[in-house]
Specification:
By secondary structure, the protein is of the alpha/beta class. The protein is built from five helices and seven strands; from the N terminus they run E-E-H-E-H-H-E-H-E-E-H-E.
Length: about 180
């Protein structure tokens, strides 16, 4: 994985973004605006774009949510194939993201536990591009993703996953 190949990252769970050093551009949330506003205050992060299920009129895993994400990607000048979706749920995020042509990183928090957690089993086979056991492991790999240090290691995707609620875009301004 070479993170510099991407100009933007989208995340399924905005709560993990408070440790991200890049500025945050957008959020796509499976909640309504009032619910997200409370969470955003706790995060103490300013988002340039907020798209909620209330705004879109559907919840993930609807293809409509990822088409809206792709439309926003284009509107803010992120090129085709330059958005990387980082998510937990194979059912809610990876199936529709891959169907929309968006590469993905699976945060497999249940890597050492059986079952699917709080989300349904995926309805079809899906193959995320990379897998990490936590956001911390993914962040570490991103920090190690420097030309002088080589490529971070990721494991092939397999196993179970938990629930998701939101997607945010963090733009990689240094790559543009």
């Amino acid at each position: 994985m070479n993170l510099s190949d991407y100009d933007a990252l989208s995340f399924d769970c905005y709560g993990t973004l408070i440790d991200w050093e890049q500025g945050l551009g957008s959020i796509l949330s499976n909640v309504h605006r009032a619910g997200f506003a409370g969470s955003a205050r706790r995060l103490d992060v300013r988002f340039d774009h907020i798209l909620t299920a209330e705004d879109i009129g559907s919840y993930k895993p609807s293809a409509r949510n990822f088409e809206t994400l792709k439309k926003l990607r284009a509107e803010i000048g992120i090129g085709e194939g330059k958005l990387l979706h980082v998510a937990q749920s194979l059912f809610h995020d990876h199936l529709p993201a891959k169907a929309a042509g968006i590469p993905t990183v699976w945060i497999n928090r249940r890597y050492d536990q059986p079952g699917w957690g709080a989300t349904p089993e995926p309805t079809a086979e899906v193959s995320p591009d990379w897998e990490y056991p936590s956001m911390a492991a993914f962040a570490e790999a991103c920090y190690q993703d420097q030309p002088s240090q080589g490529q971070p290691s990721a494991v092939p995707a397999s196993g179970a996953q938990p629930s998701t609620e939101s997607t945010a875009i963090a733009t990689n301004t240094s790559a543009r």
